[in-house]
């Protein structure tokens, strides 16, 4: 179902029962839903854990344009789900189970936005909340502005926010090129080659140490991508046994 309004409205989803999700899953849950212009491309959120209770059956429900599903990642991994078309729209929705804890769901292209709704059921409890949203004004008089990367403004006043990539291509097919652009595609960092080992810290028969460094620049992380994990320097024992010490 799609709801369209030219005035500010608030839309919520009330789940009367999760009775079809297992035995005794009876409590209701409620969440506000996010308006499409406030969809984001990157959410980090945590599931809910009771102080002393069973883990929830945690689900993540995603709503996105059908043509954009391929770039979605959950915790850096591609994932499979069954997408269901939303009648009268070019959107689809699908859900999957997630483990208890913190998750990051994102689209590799920040101009491709979607809604993420977290829900969970436990024997006598349930929860529902939007995993996040853009915080920006909608349904307000719009003044055209020149775009800057990821400014979260509707620069061309077409009702869409940061809907392009700055790439000389009309990504959204509206006849304008780069009229309102998002951050560029997310790039995770990758280590470059190790540099040369330094000279050994001693030059005679006692063991010393030497070190080398590397940089997270192959490529460097960009546009909210992850930095490299691991150390950027390495130290090891070096052995100059047999090299005469000067003056001895
Ligand atoms: Ca726009
Ligand atoms: Ca573009
Ligand atoms: Ca365009």
Automatic annotation (TrEMBL):
It holds the Pfam family TSP_1. The keyword Nucleotide-binding does not apply. SUPFAM superfamilies: TSP-1 type 1 repeat. PROSITE patterns: TSP1. Keywords: Disulfide bond. PANTHER family: IGGFC-BINDING PROTEIN N-TERMINAL DOMAIN-CONTAINING PROTEIN, IGGFC_BINDING DOMAIN-CONTAINING PROTEIN. This is Hemicentin-1. It comes from Elysia marginata.
